[in-house]
Amino acid sequence: MLDKKVTGPARGPASAPVAIVEFSDLQCPHCKEAAPTIERLLTENPNIHFVFQNFPLPMHNWAMKGAEYADCVGRASNDAFWKFIAAVYAAQSDITAENADQKLTELAETFGVNAKDVAGCAAKPETQARVEQSINLGKSVDVNATPTLFINGRPVGVNGNNYDVLKQIVDFAANDK
Fold this sequence. Notes:
Mean pLDDT: 93
Number of domains: 1
Number of strands: 5
Radius of gyration: 15 Å
Largest sheet: 5 strands, mixed
Strand content: 5-15%
CATH topology: Glutaredoxin
Low-confidence stretches: none
CATH superfamily: Glutaredoxin
């Protein structure tokens, strides 16, 4: 069961009838495009347990660093984590492999977490190990692209970011328990 193995930051009631797990890459333009649809789904349907799993793709040159920073921000503050990933998506085109440490540190500081602590945490081997664990979890359930959503353990993709289709899947999953 995927929902028993997830380790990422979560929001919504753990006992909700619908669990959504997203495997995402902060450098992925498709993940950025999907984020507003997923946010709307969570805002308009509060009885969903949502878990974010880092899945940085090797072809993205700062995605691993982004995942490490996100992991550390999430460990410092669950509330700051959700704001941080939204800000990273918004700044995606301004972040490069060369300036990623500076930009990610600045974004982390914006949301009230200690930027020096986050930057130090992001450089630690255990942080990289947690991100690798998330990647390996994704691979174990055949994730090979981002974003990939699982609703109650079933892979569903993001369906072209179509809110109505995702809402129908959520409603079906809520009644399929």
